[in-house]
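Preliminary data (for renewal application), phosphoric acid mono(formamide)ester complex.
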Amino acid sequence: MIYFLNTIVFNPKKYYFCIGFSFGKLRGGKGCNEIWKLFIIKNIGGFIMLKNRSLIDPSDFTREEFREIFDLGHQIIANPEKYSKSCEGKILATLFYEPSTRTRLSFETAMLRLGGQVIGFSEAASSSTAKGESIADTLRTVECYADIAAMRHPKEGAPRLASHYIHMPLINAGDGGHQHPTQTLTDILTIERLRGNVENKTYGFCGDLKFGRTVHSLVKFLSNYEGVRFIFISPEELRVPEYIREEVVRKKGIPFEEVDQMEPYMNQLDFLYMTRVQRERFFNEEDYIRLKDRFILDKEKMSYARPDTYILHPLPRVNEISTEVDDDPRAQYFQQAKNGMYVRMALILKLLGIY
Ligand code: CP
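Predicted structure:
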């Protein structure tokens, strides 16, 4: 309740969220200690305390807290052996209500490489959701077995809701067309490894910017850094959602352009973040077919890019990057997928309070 009242004073826009949040905590059985902890973390600041926290949205952690995760990610890459037994006796649950290759397998590999173990399901049909079990009951049950969980769900907000019913850390592994914060961790670690830091750079985002949750999370994250500039390249129908453009980018005074051509902007970019057109989120197959081939990055388009423009993609790709680009040293999307495992190792260690 203190967190609730405090947030009304300090951040009226979270008023409605907090009502739900407070009731959720009470119904979910979290005691005053937990609410006090959140009060301290959110409003007093200066505390670096990631243990037992959930990561649902990039705005859940401060810049300093993310810095801790990235620093540990770089250290793990430098010396993975040092961490190979860090999670002995710990169990990660992967609860995937939607398909995944990279996110689920990199989470599972991350835990295995830390010496821990993994349980979970990779589709709702193989869990008791198929019999009508609620998310709350599933999560309360999983908490009886695991120390930490990663959850992907087709419904926006499902991981946030789920986090209110449990005490263990929960990681949003992608919720509908909303957010995908651990892909953002992956992207930022990759940017840092390629160019040292994220500041003072121009980022191009191309493709399905409407449904692409990885874009929403990354833009939200980058908007907290100095000197960033965005070029959003998409068909009119697939532009970034208004809440991202107005509430995040414009509100923070970030320079940006929304354009529908790729070539004229290629030589301005430090990073080009390609995305696939998200067929599964279209209401209408005709619209998908009309838009799916609008932007395809091939060798010819790469010739417009600078020698130091790196190409990122959260993957999976369909056809938006021609395979002939894969051998170009500027194409970094498979290394990006590998970095995802390292940064998820760092995240697990931090949320379990082991490092
Ligand atoms: N980048 C990403 O989320 O890939 P998956 O859907 O394969 O997990």
